[in-house]
Amino acid sequence: MSDMISQRQKVNVKKMRVPDVVPGMIIARDVITSQGFVLLAKDTLVNQAILDRLVGKGINTVYVKEIVFVENEGKDLEEEKALGGILESAQKEKPVQTSVTERKDFGDFNNEYDDKLNTAEGQLRAISMGLAVNIDELYKITHATFSKLKAKSDVMTYMSFLREQNEHIVGHSYNVSLLCHLFAQWVRMDLVETKNLTVAGLLHDIGQFQIPDEILYKKGRLTDEEFATIKKHPRLGYDILEAQPIPSDIKLGVFMHHERFDGSGYPQGVKGIKINRFAKIIAICDTYDAMTASRAHRARMCPFDVIKQFEIDGYDKFDTSLLLTFLRNIAYIYFGSWVKLSDGSEGEIVYIHQNNLSRPVIRIGDQLIDLQRNLDISITSVL
Is the alpha carbon torsion for 155, 158, 160, 166 positive or negative? Predict the structure, then answer.
């Protein structure tokens, strides 16, 4: 293992709004209620239960520690205490290393997913042939799967373990719907918007039902003519929905989900603020699921590889504020998860860099490996 924390840590303290605080951060100062009681002590490691407690008590701002790794040129006492605090907190929060597929919640989710996937397929095929869209009924399909989860964010982890190969329109559409449902919670949409976005995600590729299967599921490289046919599906989907008495956001989400912020998308090549907000969100969820799903020609990509790819070229293609929301939430979902590294070792994610989400700090035993500093090591899979 190269460079096992042969560097020290610089500790910055900053004031943050509670809605911007995420699991994995460390409280820098005691949090005092309006009655003068200590709600949280300094050096508390933030998790979702703590965030809920802060909101419930009406706390608006807190001070958090920002840990920055620097070269080891003499260790400062306060920085050593900070390192010890992270290690101590990580040990207290240390989960039992269990495979995702061994969790009971995963089994319940998997069974519900398969059941509702069949329901979704019947609905989507019928709508593609003219059945009226019932937003409440379509929303129930996706929402029922979430009801099987104690932590809604687990859907991100579980989805990647559902199937070795899931290229069908319905499987992908259902995954995008699940991601849109979760995204709606991240940006605090009301119930009506949440339903509409979730349904738009489910319907986003409905136009593909009118693409010949020999093109849609072709194993080899598409010809230019075949790809041009594939690119017609947003327009075909919009045509299916145009006369339906449903919100325009759903229709435009379907029509514009392949448009890109820099104008490089299709079918119209529009850019920036001209792209519908639902379409911007669906575009991110659609791309993420496509990259993390298994395909006949490749294995699924590790979520941290996908995050890195988004960091490299995503900010030109997608709405920056929405993409940041998506990436930060994805990264922090995996806080505390066990991962396998490229050198064969396994460890627990104990710190996420806000400005380098794809390269967190990993604890292996009593040692910390900062992937932001150790560029020759990377995460290859989530365990």
Answer: negative
Q: Across-strand partners of 367?
A: 364
Q: Do 116 and 170 meet the contact criterion of CB atoms below 8 Å apart?
A: no
State the CATH number of the domain containing residue 65. 3.90.105.10
Q: How far is CA 13 from CA 64, 66, 67, 338, in A?
A: 6, 6, 9, 28
Assess whether 42 and 154 both reside in one domain. Answer: no
List the pLDDT tens digit at each of the 383 positions of the chain: 444 444 445 567 888 888 888 877 888 887 876 655 667 777 677 877 778 778 877 888 888 887 555 555 444 444 445 545 555 555 555 445 556 667 777 888 888 888 899 999 999 999 999 999 999 999 999 999 888 877 777 788 788 777 554 457 899 999 999 999 999 988 889 999 999 999 999 999 999 999 999 998 888 888 999 999 999 999 999 999 999 999 999 999 999 999 999 999 999 999 999 999 999 999 999 999 988 876 655 667 889 999 999 999 898 999 999 999 899 888 888 877 889 999 999 998 888 887 889 999 998 988 889 999 999 999 998 88
Tell me how many domains the chain contains: 2
Q: Is 236 in the same domain as 159?
A: yes
Q: How many CB atoms lie within 10 A of CB 149?
A: 16
Q: Do 108 and 231 sit in the same domain of this protein?
A: yes
Kindly state whether residue 356 falls inside one of the protein's structural domains. Answer: no
- Look up the domain containing 278 and give its range: 100-301
DSSP letter string over 67-79?
EEEEE-SS--HHH
Give the CATH number, domain containing residue 129.
Answer: 1.10.3210.10
Alpha helices, H only, the chain? 48-56, 77-92, 104-128, 135-146, 154-159, 169-186, 191-203, 213-216, 224-230, 233-241, 248-256, 277-292, 303-317, 320-333
Looking at the structure, do residues 189 and 80 belong to the same domain, yes or no? no
Tell me if the pTM is above 0.85: no
Could you give the CA distance from residue 230 to residue 162 in angstroms, rounded to a whole number?
26
Two structure tokens written together for 382: 């989530």
Burial class (CB in 10 A: 0-12, 13-18, 19+), 336: middle
